[in-house]
Design goal:
12% strand, single chain, two-stranded antiparallel ribbon, alpha+beta, 4 strands
Amino acid sequence: MATLKDKGLTKLRRTLKKLSGVKIKVGFLDEQTATIAAFNEFGAFNVRAKRFVGPRPFIRSTITIKADEIKKGQALVMKGVYEGRFTAKAAAEAMGDFIRRLILDRIDTATQWAIPLEAFTVEEKGHSRPLVDTGAMRDALRVEVTL
C-alpha cells in the first residue's frame, strides 16, 4: 500500500483556518470625522459656496492605485503566518497599518492630484492643501482588527 506524504497541505489548512475570521477595517471610527471624510471622498454641497464641491477620493483611489502593493503585502503577511513568524492578529494589524500609511500618503500628496481648493476656502484656511484643515481627519484614520 502506498503512503501519502503531506507536502504542506495540512499546515496550509491550519493557516487558512487561523485567517478565516480576520477582519481589518481602516477608516474613521467616530461619526463626525467619518462624515467629513465622506464629504471629501464623494463630494458634497457646500452651503457657504452655494454649490457642489467635487470629490477628492483619497480612500478609493488609494485602494485602486496601490492594489498590487496591497496584494503583495497580503501575500507576505500570509506567508509569515504560514511560517509561524506572525500570529493572525499581528499579521492583520501589520496589513491594516500598511494600508493606513498608503492612505495617509495619498492625503499628504493631495496637492498633486486633487481638485484645487476654491479661493474662499484658501483664504479661510490660510493654505491651499486639499484634505487638510486642522489635520484632525488625517490624525483620526484608524485600524481596527477583529478575529
